[in-house]
Amino acid sequence: MAVILNCATFLSEDIDRADPKRKDVDEILKAGERASALTSQLLSFSRREIVKAEILDLNHVISGIKSLLQRTARESIEVELDLFPVLNPTKIDRGQLEQIIMNLSVNALDAMPEGGRVVVKTANVAVDEAAVRRYPGLRSGEYVTLAVSDTGRGMSSEARARAFEPFFTTKPRGAGTGLGLSTVYGIAQQAGGHVIIDNGADAGTTFTVYLPATSVRVEQTPLPVDASGDERRSRETILVVEDEDGVRSVVDRILSREGYEVVTAASGPEALETFVRHSGPIHLLLTDVVMPGMSGKELADRVKKANPETPVIYMSGYPEQITTQEGVEAGQTYIQKPFTARELLSKVRDVNLSATGSF
Ligand SMILES: Nc1ncnc2c1ncn2[C@@H]1O[C@H](COP(=O)(O)OP(=O)(O)O)[C@@H](O)[C@H]1O
Ligand SMILES: [Mg+2]
User: Fold this and answer.
1) Which of 7-16, 203-212, 297-306 shows the lowest mean pLDDT across its residues?
2) Sequence-distant (≥ 6) Cβ neighbours of residue 331 within 8 angstroms
3) By C-alpha distance, which of 211, 206, 220 is closest to 121?
4) What letter would DSSP give residue 357?
């Protein structure tokens, strides 16, 4: 897929704007982008068969990804959590619930290019007959709700009517896939819930996800998904360096969810700056190998010069032999992309354990 998209981009850049062939190439590009968006969405759907629905406290899950939310937001945006203190539990897959929160939050951020405020609010809600009449599709009963509000540009009635349609987007090509809300809607429906769109009080939009409340009591601290059975939540800080946004945010999510402090950088120079400016210690450098500008190896060398004890894990989409040609010596800790959460966590744990003595 990357090949199709890259080659079509090269072609499109080479062909004159007026050339009728340009239109065909742009169609290839568009189809490729849709296919690649669909593939990643399908992957997230297939992953959910592995991770199954469990009884969760919504507040707990929101708190778990709070720092990720705050990092995703630009400085001009305020993120506020308004969590109802005694929330009923709900039964849903944790990864899917995180995906709902992230998709809605990212949309809220996109709607506020000039800055503003996002409020993530939870509540226990009893849906009665009056509410059912007002919101067709919602059934009566006990729910927990997740409302994500923004102070952004709001939605036209046409956009509201089509918002949950797969591939419906008003964003420019490359910026939107049109799959965020259809995914949120699909997950909510599957959990027996619903999603409602409201206009904000003065401006902006509020998305409210209704999830059925369950009566079973929730386990306060859900165990991490972890093969080794080590339930200790780590607090080590990991610097993640990866130029591809999608990969970086997935790695961030996997590690944050496990309890690690994560700082991210999109390039070698940015990582060095972060390394210098970060107030606490950085316990591990997890870096991509092949990046434009400065390679992962070069970055690691510079970090080690300043701080020889810092362990490094390289991640690369290339097999180990090719990575070796990039200057990474054989035998160094290395993980090949694509990897699963479990593989990554196990690598990180190995390194951290063996390095603990040196701090
Ligand atoms: N918070 C929001 N404020 C304004 N418009 C929104 C908001 N969330 C979604 N939308 C509209 O709904 C469309 C579909 O959203 P989504 O399915 O997440 O796809 P994408 O974000 O990729 O465009 C967006 O393109 C946008 O027009
Ligand atoms: Mg979206």
Assistant:
1) 7-16
2) none
3) 206
4) G
Q: What angle do CA 151, 153, 154 make, to 5 degrees?
A: 85
Domain ranges of the chain: 2-50, 54-212, 237-358
pLDDT of residue 38: 64
User: Quick one: pLDDT at residue 82?
Assistant: 94
Q: Which long-range contacts (CB under 8 A, 24 or more apart) does 317-324 make?
A: 317/290, 318/289, 318/290, 323/289
| C-alpha–C-alpha distance, residues 323 and 314, integer Å | 9
Give, for ligand 1, the residue of 164, 181, 206 to mutate: max count of ligand atoms closer than 8 Å to Cβ. Answer: 181
Measured from CB, residues less than 6 Å from any atom of ligand 1 are: 103, 107-108, 111, 150, 152-153, 155, 159, 163, 168-171, 176-182, 205
Q: Does residue 231 register a pLDDT over 70?
A: no
Token digits of residue 167: 């591939």
Instruction: Give the chain's mean pLDDT.
Output: 83
CATH superfamily placement of domain 54-212: Histidine kinase-like ATPase, C-terminal domain (3.30.565.10)
Atom in ligand 1 nearest the alpha carbon of residue 176 = 22
Q: Confidence band (pLDDT; 50, 70, 90) for 329?
A: low
The token pair that represents 58 in the structure block: 């919504």
Q: Which ligand is nearest to the CA of 164?
A: 1
Task: Quickly list H helices, 191-278.
Answer: 245-257, 268-277
| CATH H-level, domain 237-358: superfamily | Response regulator (3.40.50.2300)
